[in-house]
Amino acid sequence: MAPLRILSFILLLIATSAQTPIYMYNFCQNSTAENSPSTSYQTNVKNVLSWVTADSATSKGYNRTTIGGGGNMNNNNGTDDAVYGFYDCRGDIIGYLCQFCLTTAANEIAQRCPNSVTAVIWYDGCIIRYSNQSFYGKVDLSGIWNMTGSKSINDSTEIKKVEDSVENLIRKATMETNKSWAMDEYDWDYNEKRYGLAQCSRDLANDQCRQCLQGLLDVFPQCCGTKVAWAVISPSCGIRFDDYMFYQSTNQTGSSPMPNPGNIANSCLVWIPLY
């Protein structure tokens, strides 16, 4: 069998054995009669999504690009047809599974957000964003959404334990590792375990990452404090906590099957106004 056919066969086996990436949420800023995207803008959106799929095959799991408008990444004013694109995989999702998630997300966002000026889509293992305005290196907490499981906590003292555990994750992500993401497991009551993950868009500086994650932690008691399994997510960062190991352990490789969603089921959007 020729080497190329062998490689194709191996990739087919990986795709078949891996779970399909799990859609979580999306946001689309639809066009209006006064703000309808031009044909060239729509073409550049398609080119950005194609770039995501191709670039993720060789990247470190995240990257950004600008297509159109002269390709100036520092142009914050937004040219008529300039599209600013960004993708990021969860820190424990690497290699082919990262590309697999992003390819799925790119196809889905094209279906869910046709003719959108700005769009974000979240899967359990990756995120894709694009806009006509540059958002690189900026904290975006304008639209925070959450998901919760059905299982409730045993008593209110758990809320403080959760907050302390997430503070630990934030410290690891922004100070101890400087990787913009961290995951850990915690001993809990009744011989139980809890598992947490915090991650920022990897275009943010450490202080911006800390600001973003702290903003989500402030929302946690209002939306999710009574639940064992929960996630609070924004375009710039996300936090998840569960009694199920939803991420890949550190001794796993990028060829391992993608984790299932665990106990989280219900979702809602919480809009946080910026002043």
Automatic annotation (TrEMBL):
CDD domains reported for this sequence: Gnk2-like (cd23509)
Keyword terms, alphabetized: Glycoprotein, Repeat, Secreted, Signal
Domain Gnk2-homologous: 23-135, 141-246
Pfam families reported in the protein's UniProt record: Stress-antifung (PF01657)
Chief localization: secreted
Subcellular locations according to the entry: Secreted
GO CC annotations, alphabetized: extracellular region
Signal sequence, start to end: 1-18
InterPro entries in the record: CRR_secretory_protein, GNK2, GNK2_sf
Record family assignment: Belongs to the cysteine-rich repeat secretory protein family.
Name used for this protein in its record: Gnk2-homologous domain-containing protein
Species assigned in the record: Canavalia gladiata (Sword bean)
Lineage summary: Eukaryota, Viridiplantae, Streptophyta, Embryophyta, Tracheophyta
